[in-house]
Each structure stands twice: as C-alpha cells, then as structure tokens.
Amino acid sequence: MPYILISTQIRLETGPTMVGDEYSDPAVMSYLGARKTTMLGNNFSEYHVDEPSRVVLDKLEKIGYRVVSMTGVGQTLVWCLHKETSDSL
C-alpha cells in the first residue's frame, strides 16, 4: 500500500492526527504508534496518534514516504503521501 492519507482539524494542529483507516498497513500504523478506534455511530475504524501532523510527516519521511499533495477542506487539513515500491511489472 504505497499511499497514505493523514489529516487533522485546523484548530488541532498539535494533535491528534488521523493516520489511516481499517485497511491501512498494520506495520506502518505500529511504527507510528497509532491506535485503532471506532467512533460511536460510525461503521468504520480509523487510526489516530496524539502527535501533531508535522511529527507524523517527519516519521513517514524517514521510512520513504513523500508528500504528493496537501489541501484544506473546510476545517480539515489533509496530506497525501506516496512511497515508491521496488515492484515492477
């Protein structure tokens, strides 16, 4: 899974940061120290960390991820990251 989306609320730049969904790579989530939670009323799970987005971005860069794009959607900041794979067709 070479793509990761992370997000945070604009007023919560110091954390927490949403770092994945229920289909995210468990090894990457473990590396980030993420915890899997399901909010009441949701039928899906998300991974969160208490660190600010900047710290998460630094950690992901260390294991080969690069920011592809970033945007603000309402009160939410979202980053899309990609990691090159050595697989070739």
TrEMBL record:
Q: What is its main location?
A: cytoplasm
* GO annotations of cellular component type: cytosol; nuclear membrane
Localization in the cell? Cytoplasm, Cytosol; Nucleus membrane
Q: Biological process GO terms, please?
A: negative regulation of biosynthetic process
Coiled-coil stretches noted in the UniProt entry, renumbered to this chain = none
What GO MF annotations does this protein's record show? Answer: GTP cyclohydrolase binding
Superkingdom of origin:
Eukaryota
Q: Which UniProt keywords apply?
A: Cytoplasm, Membrane, Nucleus
Family per record: Belongs to the GFRP family.
Protein's UniProt name: GTP cyclohydrolase 1 feedback regulatory protein
**Which species is the source of this protein?**
Triplophysa rosa
